[in-house]
């Protein structure tokens, strides 16, 4: 998970506002357009070659969902803007993948940008991509950077005739898509929660040197997630309060549920962030603890042997007149003295609770 | 106390909203339904086999309290929804035990979710379970995950004819149930407060290595409690401000008292959290302190013996021309020098306050 | 100062709300009731045996002040409730000494709970007790846990005919009593401020091991004071905004002054809390500093003597062919080498600024 | 800069509110009253012996500025109160030098208390004193604790006929005085900013033991300044919003500028506080760093010499059968072994980047 | 990037408000005035010698943009004030380069102050300068401290006939200029983001002593940027809410986009600040880690050699009666004992995971 795309923004320095340049890292080879058209009785789905192919649906009463995978061809986005009358500043936002989640009222439509987080690969790293939605009277346009197909379950529900989704409007479709994205947040949180627990166990029992960079990486990811989840909360809250006729009473109800979910995401993130800073404290404490133990071993060894080595040194001196050297039991006595010293020291350490 | 159930949520990935699946860990074997029906003059109580059994009471003027222990049978929850006209999104909330405390206005009813914390076993660990309430015109439905019977005192008061509770409406019953749950918070806080004091004493006097994980566990629990108590404050505040006719003037008065209690819980939690972070600081300080002492012992021993060992070493040299070795009092003089050095060192340490 | 009475609350688990049970620690032997009755021209004071004794004053136009010392007899509180028409939930608050400061509008009266802090004994420990006030049309009832007579100065002013206090209403009396309580906060802050300064000096110059628990105790006290002073601010602010006719224009003016005082208390507390966390940082820094110094001494001694001890060791070897041992000036040369090494080391340490 | 005068407040314990007692430390010998009276055409200035001397000006249409240096004579303050009709609670605030900055609407006047900070002496310590202002229809009364003449530049501008100040009302004079006080804040900030930079350099390059108390003193001063600057912001903001006719449109404009200045003071203070806590972190880091270096020296010396001293010890043993001792090149070989060990060790340290 | 110009402010101590003195460091040699005049059909650009030269454009219907590089000549600013009727307090703000970003409503104009950050030189240090804008009915005046030509791209767009910019009003020009400034913020953030990553890598792998001052410098820069970006957010927000007719509907739209950008800057800064404090924690942790390793090496060496050196010392004693010395295998046995001790020690260290 790359934590910041501020970098790429600087390519646009000096260009007039509204210039359509893709800012980000290309995540798919070709741009794929999928058009779905449905009403309670009918469902049709096809791949489109260009936005112009979709225009036929624009004026039908049935609901159209255009899903665009891949943002690196500004021409497609531009023709989308022309066909559906979207201001070039919003098209710019779609292409700028460092966009902050936000909602804009287009008058006869709604424009929403958010981040999607998905788990990829076996090591369960999280991948972020930007997803934009445009809600119109009878259509939803969704645009994502890559080709991770997170909306497949929604499409399956659309295909089956008896779900709620076919009989409700495009606002419910938008809700269903956003709900899918937010549901993936929980999977990511789950993985992060497990990583926190693993790190915690490692730190409390037996830690390796590489734990620290991993803690740091975790904190960076939580920071990034927070940066993306907080404004999303405001976005969904704004959807609840908006007075355009686009979102109907029934859907409002579902969006309130979605709002509950995002609040829970934000709450959990805050908890995780607190736990993650706790990890560093545990780390420092356990390093201190270890150092303390190392010091104790050193001190015990040194404190026992330095004095008796001195005794041995004394009787290694070569003075001519050293009466003890001549005593019959001198050597034994020295050993006695040294053993007494060792016992005294050990007693002292036991009293100090070092042993 | 398991701190987060985000895990289990991921099982629902891809399902349409409102799917009734129990999210959580099953805490009781069978689902038990207890129905109480009362008016000022009468009290009746029985075990019911299914929700349908309770339907007879629905249209009586007397007050009905249905208490459900165990949430792992979605069919029961679903029939409850059908009988009492509760939206499937709320049924989903009841079944999702990672729900955040919240209140929803159902139009002709109120829906409240909160957490109950109880002490279990001798080691006084806290167990959390989710409790949901539905308040209607003439009924209260309460649903809990397990079978810990915390509402028994309320039932006792209901049985006796002369308490206030029989003559007041279902709103007062709801208050009495919520008050019981919040009263248990104080017991949990009491246990946590004692654990903080025990840890504090251990850290300040004589700490073992296992103290650190215990401090960490304590902080996790406080974090979880906070996450559950904060939104409850908002819930109870919302109950005070709601303008539905369901909650009467007299009960408002009691709910204000309940609000005071939850504020006190939140305040105490904040204090505990501050004390708990203080614990870590004490821990680090006392580890530093100890290391300092260990170092001092090592330094004193080394500083005294290393120089005199050197003196001994000098006169252990085998040079042919070492005049001192031949002196009559050479050996005595060396001892004199060494003792003088020891005294000087001890004086220095006393000046430095190391002794 | 005991920081939390959450403990005792658990005794009430399972009792219906409004049960009159004294929660706390008994602080006086017998309950003493002092009744004062006054108007601008007259002042009368007596000890009453029971609340019923005071009833005669209730319907007089003159102002009555009933002061109750000792809360451990619920029957007295109950008869007070009956005589003056106070709801049992408020009586419960009076008896629950873990109550958070708050103000309640009784319709024809005001109910205020706050904490009083006084200094006791020579060691100037602070003692906290709960004080409740009930303000009526022509009376003030004050109830305190113990028998510390902090209101004596007010009584003195009442006795003298020419003060402002006799000519103003019961609202001014309430103000005078609360002002007295808040004035004592300043004495407590003064003592705490001095303790912070003493600790600071100890930590910066020469600290003993017992400093740390004292810092911790200080922080606990500040935490408790904060918990009690913050809501008091809201209470006094609410008194300023309340629209009941009980508090007159002139008294409002004085209450605003009281509000200024409590703001100052809160401000000072915040400062003290910041200084107290600074203390811990100083502590850790000075422990580190000391350890650094200890290490330096050890290193200097070891670094000087270990190499020259090695030299001495070399010439203590018993090889048959060691030419130096036979040299005439061998011994002197060895001393020369050793002294040169010492001088080099000392120079190195001076360069490193260790000496 | 003494950081808190809470101490002196306790002298007032038990006195009725509004008692005029000087709380603080006397900063000047005698109280000096300077009266200035001016209109666009005229300027008159004299020293007054008492407030009664100034009464003549009260009813003139021209503007009067009474400046009082020294607060330790309550009688003067009292006669001021009588002459200008100021409530005794405000007189009390003037005398209580631990007052928090505040503004009070006197109905036909404004009462403002703030702190002035000035640099005194060569060592540029900051001195704080309390300054109160009373703004009336045609007068400004300013009262300060000491006799630091910070208002001289304003007086100079008043004396000259062509400045803006003579033609505008007393509200502009009040603004000019307050602006002068706030301008001095910048000088104090400048000095503090330099002290932070000096401390930073000391800590990063070569620190002495006394740095820590200085960092702590700096933080205390910043804390005190913050405590005084924050409420001043609210005071000036309140002056902008007040609807009394005392402050005219033109002056409002200048007060907005003053508001910008105080915001800048508060911002800079916040930055300084952050930098100051950064200082402590640098300190701890550099102590750790140093200790690390000391340890390395010790470890290198010990690790090199302990093993070779052992070798020397081995051949200092007096066994009769030690073949090596008899070898022709035994001594040289031992030296060879020892030098090889030293080289190995040095290589190891180089690899570890300790050298 | 100099972080605070509070210093220079003190030069103004004692001067009346509105005195025009340049506060700051001169950043360019001569003051350069560039005047551009355009309408949809025409574009004219010239260097002007003085403000008076520009007066001719003032009353034309076409749009005039006067750009002033260099603020050190107060006379030019003063004549600007006279020609365009700008209050001397705002002129003072223009000259005071320590000004906080702000917007002021001039009645028939808008006054905006903000900071521009540009990268300069190869080492990519950031340079800050103050930029002020005055927006009038048909003109924009921009003033900057130095001569870094960041507005060249805007000028290029003005020169070309087909851009949007020529056909929109002076409000759009103001937006375009401000947008250019904010776009440069992203370049600065990019460089800072890279520096954080570089520091992080250095700290986690192999750090030098100079890392700490660099971390500190980084934090100072972030603090300064934050101080300048936060109020800018409010400025742009105020521009959105202002009800003067100067800013048209279409431009509002673009300003909302600008607001999004500044929010993103502020968000990113907050993240960077958190990462930067994380850096210090990593630093401390890795210093601790290293010290731990150093200690281990010392302890292993000392613990292995001190005991066996003692053994060697024992048999170096010169007692006459030491039976071992005479044994045939005495010497070999001693070696055996010593090797056994070494092996035991190594086993102990392996068990402790020190090896």
Can you give a write-up of this model?
Chain A is α+β, with helices and mostly antiparallel strands and 355 residues long. Chain A has helices at residues 6-9, 51-58, 74-84, 88-95, 152-159, 170-205, 211-241, 249-314, 323-326, 330-351; strands at residues 32-39, 42-48, 63-69, 102-105, 110-120, 125-135, 139-144. In chain A, a hairpin with a 4-residue loop joins strand 5 (110-120) and strand 6. In chain A, helix 6 packs parallel to helix 8. Chain A is rod-shaped, with a radius of gyration of 34 Å. Chain A starts with 5 loop residues before the first helix and ends with a helix. The mean pLDDT of chain A is 86. The interface between D and E is large, with 60 and 62 residues.
Short description:
5 copies of one chain form a homopentamer. Chain A is an alpha+beta fold and 355 residues long.
């Amino acid at each position: 998970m790359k934590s910041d795309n501020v970098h790429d923004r600087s390519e646009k320095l000096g260009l007039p506002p509204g210039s359509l340049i893709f800012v980000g890292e290309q995540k798919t080879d070709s741009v794929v357009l999928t058009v779905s058209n449905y009403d309670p009785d009918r469902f049709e789905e096809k791949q489109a070659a260009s936005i112009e192919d979709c225009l036929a649906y624009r004026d039908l009463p049935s609901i159209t969902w255009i899903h665009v995978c891949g943002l690196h061809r500004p021409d497609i986005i531009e023709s989308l803007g022309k066909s559906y009358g979207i201001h070039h500043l919003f098209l710019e936002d779609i292409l700028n993948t460092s966009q902050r989640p936000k909602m804009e009222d287009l008058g006869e439509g709604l424009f929403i940008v958010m981040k999607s987080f998905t788990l990829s690969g076996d090591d369960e790293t999280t991948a972020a991509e930007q997803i934009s939605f445009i809600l119109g009277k009878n259509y939803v346009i969704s645009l994502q950077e890559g080709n991770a197909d997170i909306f497949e379950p929604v499409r399956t529900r659309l295909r089956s005739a008896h779900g709620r989704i076919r009989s409700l409007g495009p606002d419910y479709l938008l809700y269903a898509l956003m709900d899918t994205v937010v549901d993936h947040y929980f999977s990511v949180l789950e993985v992060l929660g497990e990583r926190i627990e693993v790190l915690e166990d490692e730190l409390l029992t037996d830690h390796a040197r590489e734990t620290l960079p991993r803690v740091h990486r975790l904190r960076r990811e939580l920071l990034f997630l927070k940066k993306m989840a907080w404004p999303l909360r405001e976005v969904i809250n704004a959807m609840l309060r908006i007075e355009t006729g686009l979102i109907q009473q029934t859907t409002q109800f579902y969006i309130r549920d979605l709002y509950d979910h995002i609040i829970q995401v934000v709450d959990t993130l805050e908890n995780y962030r607190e736990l993650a800073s706790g990890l560093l404290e545990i780390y420092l404490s356990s390093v201190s603890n270890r150092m303390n133990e190392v010091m104790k071993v050193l001190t015990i060894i040194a404190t026992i042997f330095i004095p008796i080595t001195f005794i041995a040194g004394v009787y290694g001196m070569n003075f001519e007149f050293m009466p003890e050297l001549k005593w019959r039991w001198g050597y034994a006595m020295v050993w006695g003295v040294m053993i007494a010293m060792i016992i005294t020291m050990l007693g002292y350490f036991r009293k100090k609770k070092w042993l």
